[in-house]
Amino acid sequence: MNVNRILFFIALSILILGQTQAQTLSNDALKAQIKAFKADERGPYRDIRWFCEDGSIRQPKDPCPANIGPGVQHARYKEVVEKIGKENHIFLAQILAYTKKESLWDEARNNSRLKQYQLGKYLYGIDNGWILEKAQFYRGSIQYEDEQEAGRDFYKWVLANDKNIEQKYFLIRESLKDVPHSGDDNLAQLMRSQSKTISDIEPRFMNLRVKIHSQPEVSDVEKVKSFKQQNQSRLSASVLKQLDELVETMVQFYKPIDLSSLLYKDTLLKGTPMGNAIQDFILKTNVQNASEVVKNSSELLLQIRKGILSEKRVITRLKLMDISLKLETVIFKESPKWEPKTLNELLQKIYYLGMANAGAGNIELWEWSQIEKTLKPKNNGTTTLADLNNILIAARGEVEWSASMVKAYYQEVVNMYTAFEPKAYGFIDDRIRGSITLHLGQSVGELGNYLAEASNFSNKVLDLQNTSSLRGLNPGYAFGELVVVSEDPESVEVSSNKIYIFQRPPADLKPVAGIATVEEGNMVSHVQLLARNLGIPNAALSSENLKGLKKYEGKNVFYAVSNQGTVILKLEGEMSATEKALFEKKERKEDKIEVPVDKIRLDQNAILNLRDVDATSSGNICGPKAANLGQLKKMFPDNVVEGLVIPFGIFKSHMDQNMPNQNTSYWGFLTAMFEQAESMRKNGTSEAEVESFQLKKLESLRAAIKEMPLKSDFKKSLEDDFKSVLKSSMGNIPVFLRSDTNMEDLKDFTGAGLNLTLFNVVESQKIWDGIKAVWASPYTERSFKWRQKYLLNPENVFPSILIIPSVDVDYSGVMITKGIQSGNGADITVAFSRGAGGAVDGQIAETYLIRMDETYDLLAPAREPYYNSLPKTGATQKNMATFESRILTEKNITQICKLTEQVRELMDKLHPDYTGAYDVELGFKNGQLWLFQIRPFVENKKALSSDYLESISPKIDSKKEISLNATL
């Protein structure tokens, strides 16, 4: 066999191996493929065929014969398209007539394929056909009549299942706007797509595009015509044609309302309760009165959502869904015409738009029931500033919940596509702008502006006009460069002297000067607690605010959040003398916190039973997690699991072993690093260089600790204790390994979430490896940077480890024995998510303000699309969540109030000198409450008591009465 033949067979073998071990295409490969599709006259399609009912496939000029039944004609996908679908689970240019109903619903992948169909339609609209740029004209590739028939069959199948409607009403209804099934077009989305396409080509059209996207109204038609007339000589023939097409779409969209068309020639609904309600609506609604149209349409929209399950015929359910969409269009068009003249009219408009928003599925029905009583207008002639503020909070909350609903359903798919097609990122914004939420948000903004003026309360944020959506979360002030992060925050390397505006907060935030987020997660996540604890100013803002701040990126700004939630953001040149003085003095070393080590016992080398530690053990033989949980075990024996504690002494004895390839111990290596760093500072080395040196040394130390040999007597003792205390052999019971250092829960530093917790570990080797990983975690970059910035002696950090059996809770979260938002020490704040590990990692959690009389306010519903369960086999399992029912029950609220009362009473006896609140991690399993941690809730007293922050908090007379007839 010659050399060439050998090389040929080697190459063939490699090719075959590559085909048998298929891998997902990279994002770069997908980008290249998208580009190729755009330039291809057939795009993603291979050819056109007849598909017959008997499964046979025939040539385009050879239709299915009558004896085997009719078939459908459409394109086949290119092989690479099928490969992308199979390997990447990305489905491009989907043909409904080519797709099984079960495949399109894609339930096992959280309906990904249906969402991708919608995203594909969006990209097609805004990017000249997207991957069908040239294939739009590939005749016969898609038959619209067949697509409609496939869409109808799909929805009849989906709507036959009550569970689908109960759990995914929002998704089904949203998808109806994109999936052909009735001959209707989504004119609102088409109008936005056409205006975007024009502005991308012709920048002078941008102002009109913003108007059409943000405040659409019928007068925009004349504005577009005027733009065309004024710029006719400067515009290309293509743009002139697109302007004509936009005008045609807008005229069609804004044509006069014909309510009778809702039941035009309809016999299915005639005589039914829903049919009678729709007929009454048609007869009683005066289409010339915008406020009446919006009110009546909103009531009917909600009625359809509540009553659709009582209709058992699937084709009638589909008809009701379509009527619901038409009502949304009516409200969307008529809302701008309703121009409230008085405060009472504005409150009515907010109430009815909120109702319509719930009817459209943008929030869940149970969520609407929680805020309806607050939003419902009163007819007693006057109101107070306090009541108006409550209405504003509830209404603003509904806008935020609606936006987070869109993100919860679509963000995962949008992120997947954005990685290879950046234009996909605009999809979520487009869905929100095309919904009733847009007009609700505008009305809420008007109320916020009115209330700010009436109470002399206003945010001052650069040149932003609508700042009523801004609200402070944590008080503090900062000065530094502004960084606006609209993309994935996990990929951003943050700096401790910069101010960051995030779309959503990163799970593991390193030190920053200040933060603001669109998706705040929840008020008691680790990120929020660290910010509150350290006096880092933190605020929530809207997506519009984030976009408005983008042009100031890179500028030095002053940022402050007051105790009452006022937000100030201004350029460096606009700072007052008082504000400049806040930063004239460098941070004094005395402002840092010292980790107490005078009482630490490193001679405790025996593993401890959780029952044998209590609050007095904290910082002595173990960290506060174990000490406080041991205390809770004594106080609430039936609500706390058994556990084991690996004390500081065992960690230190292992660190005293010789470190491989070093002439010192692990501990000697660490202390030498700190000594050398201090010497570098004294010799004038820059802090950045010192930090870089330390991080490299710590990286080496972490790697060495993870390979450190464990002492045989320690291993035997732990194995024995598993049997005697946890009642199971190691390797047979899943456990949590929680890092528990002496740097946590200090008087002025919480350290929440800085070190490692390992979830649901089962296998023995993974437990041994996990112990070393937890010991190494205080030396990660993030943990070290927080300590280095706020601790005087960051080298004196000792980790203990708390080992507790896993409890596969139904839902879990955090309870703070204080009203964080209200500031009332008698209230309770709780945040819960489904599954294990809830609410602590920035999740969008179900959050309540609870009063001790068991009344409560819903501050935010959960919007996490997935949750963790803890299988007995170990690790975590991702499960899909739906939002149709609340997490916490009324019984849970009662349990939480009772627990809070007991915690306050018992902890006050143990810590008579402590006057603050407590931070408790807990969960529920089959209705039983389980306690996992208790710690002091640390707030930054310097920020809370700052004279400057007090000066920017307006003094509000909450009892001040205001006439509901007051003019706007």
UniProtKB/TrEMBL annotation:
Residues 621-944 form the Pyruvate phosphate dikinase AMP/ATP-binding domain. Keywords: ATP-binding, Kinase, Magnesium, Metal-binding, Nucleotide-binding, Signal, Transferase. Residues 1-22 form the signal peptide. One of its GO terms (molecular function) is pyruvate, water dikinase activity. Its cofactor is Mg(2+). InterPro entries: PEP_synth, PPDK_AMP/ATP-bd. It comes from the Bacteria. PANTHER family: PHOSPHOENOLPYRUVATE SYNTHASE (PTHR43030:SF1). Belongs to the PEP-utilizing enzyme family. This is Phosphoenolpyruvate synthase. It comes from Halomarinibacterium sedimenti. The lineage of its organism: Bacteria, Pseudomonadati, Bacteroidota, Flavobacteriia, Flavobacteriales.
